[in-house]
Amino acid sequence: MEILISEELSNPALDRLAQRFGVTADGQLWREPERLQAAVAETRVLLVRNQTQVTAELLQAAPNLLGIGRVGVGLDNIDVAAASSLGIVVVAPLNANAASVAELTFGLLLALARKIPQAEQSTRAGGWDRRTHTGIELESKTLSVCGLGRIGGRVARLAKAFGMRLLGYDPFVTADSAVVRETGAILCARIEEAVATADFISVHLPLTPETSHLFGVKVFAACKAGAYFINTARGGVVDETALLLALQSGQLGGAALDVREVEPPARGALESQPNVILTPHIGAFTREAQQRTFDAVAEDAERLLSGQPTQNFVNFDRPRRG
């Protein structure tokens, strides 16, 4: 078995791979750890999205594995350190969906500011209630961008074009970085400082042990009363119980979530909040971003199997197995 696909993935780029290499596709394999472990033992390249948990234990059971292709950008379902220690290449086209996620973020921001979902639902039901759906302008409002990397940087640049004032929180970004110079963002050393005066807060941080539930009771209490909260990064960065309490108390004026702690989530209290917009993790789901992502992963899978260096590697460009 040369290539194993353990989730529901379909794209012409994968069809082209199957014309050259032996591809086994089982969209439900990620649900059955024992079957997955048996299958990966014979695999040279494993292709996943975000449901397959590529653990150190799974990798130890894959002596022939050369590389892992992540169809997307988040790496929280892959033990990259374990892969690296075994000499396994991890591929993820980290720039492929940045524009799409940034654009969705700004769409959600506008929808919160102008109460677009509520106005649409009311009008569709026969109403014509303009006063109830009075919104706010973005110009001169303050946006706090938490995470100023590939996506957060694009969001900051879009916000500047709308005339917004920018705050930034990112421990890995310095005041002389390009995104800070271009947007005029004021860097904050602490997350509480970054949210204290923000009218809108947009999250673009990876999920790590340090960021897990970073947005919890303490941070929401530090927010400006009535602020709007947007998360298009990773659901685990937010404590959803704390978020719900902040929304119900009025500490937050509204929220838009494209990602959840558990995906897909069970229906709960967030789904019934009138000031919450929920979308099913569609940040990267544009035709352009999906095609760029699949093309990049498929090309690197072919490179791995042909003995060539990969282009979208996270750790190293060639396998280092003995």
How would you describe this protein?
This protein is α/β, with parallel strands linked by helices. Strands 8-7-6-9-10-11-12 form a seven-stranded parallel sheet. A five-stranded parallel sheet has the order 2-1-3-4-5. Strand 7, helix 8 and strand 8 form a beta-alpha-beta unit. The model has no long low-confidence stretch (mean pLDDT 96).
User: Helix count, per DSSP?
Assistant: 12
Q: Bin the helical content.
A: 25-40%
Order of helices and strands: EHEHEHEHEHHEHEHEHEHEHEEH
Based on helices, strands and strand pairing, what is the structural class?
Answer: alpha/beta
Count all strands and give the number: 12
Terminal residue distance: 19 Å
What do the pLDDT scores average to?
96
Uncertain segments are: none
Topology at a glance:
Layout: E1 3-5, H1 12-20, E2 23-25, H2 33-40, E3 45-48, H3 56-60, E4 67-70, H4 80-85, E5 89-91, H5 98-114, H6 116-124, E6 142-146, H7 150-161, E7 165-169, H8 178-183, E8 186-187, H9 191-195, E9 200-203, H10 217-222, E10 227-231, H11 240-249, E11 252-257, E12 276-278, H12 287-306
Parallel strand pairs: 1-2, 1-3, 3-4, 4-5, 6-7, 6-9, 7-8, 9-10, 10-11, 11-12
Short description:
With 322 residues, the protein is an alpha/beta fold.
Any descriptors?
322 residues; alpha/beta; 7-stranded parallel beta sheet; 5-stranded parallel beta sheet; 12 strands
